[in-house]
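Let us work through a complete example step by step.
Step 1: write down the sequence.
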Amino acid sequence: MAGDLNQALDVSATGMDAQTARLRVIAENIANQDTTGSSPGADAYRRKTVTFESAVDRAAGVETVKVKNIGVDGSDLPLRYDPANPAANAQGYVKLPNVNSFIEVMDMREAERSYSANLSVMQATRSMLNKTIDLLK
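Step 2: predict the structure and record it as tokens.
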């Protein structure tokens, strides 16, 4: 029984780790939402994305989650007419980051909910372990 509870703790911990990585990428995206290139026609910051995958923990015999890839969003960079900007191309347009703060906030809330759910599982598991120890006293 204690082995199953330890496995539950391990699964929840990997879920929390994955959501922490996701939150770190979201924070980077939000921090760079106004970062343009530094030379004429240079690309702006490109939004990063996180992909998860299922991973088998053979020692514990359970499926966990892990970050498969931190990629780059290849969607078009929006343009803004700003001929005075040092990053403006010959036509006066500056490439802006493809970061949408609304999407980032929604992703952040989803990461927070998932993290909280995993934390709740850990708290319930810890409570069950404590009750088991109390019974054995």
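Step 3: interpret the result. The chain is about 50% helix and 20% strand.
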